[in-house]
Amino acid sequence: xxxxxxxxxxxxxxxxxxxxxxxxxxxxxxxxxxxxxxxxxxxxxxxxxxxxxxxxxxxxxxxxxxxxxxxxxxxxxxxxxxxxxxxxxxxxxxxxxxxxxxxxxxxxxxxxxxxxxxxxxxxx
Length: 124
Hints:
Elements: E1 9-12, H1 16-22, E2 28-32, H2 39-50, H3 60-67, H4 70-73, E3 78-83, H5 87-92, H6 94-112, E4 117-123
Parallel strand pairs: 1-4, 2-3, 3-4
């Protein structure tokens, strides 16, 4: 991680090394390998992978609520979100993409203050 990257954000060609380092700390990997073309697709992929409740709303505010909800996540998380095919979304909607990254970093800060952690790794 370079000095400019915020805590919890990684851009790596081989994220497996990071995972091996975080697994002994109790982190679980959530890999989103499919192409993520837009916000709706990203939200749907995360909702499915995390088994988020059906009653959740749409949009980033609702997603943040779920990512900071102990009950929705099944306890205090130590989670590494690995996105492998994210570039199309970032190119098509840079502002929406940056908002998502900030949302995950904010959720990570929330959990670090409560004994958990959430980090985002982007495969380069």
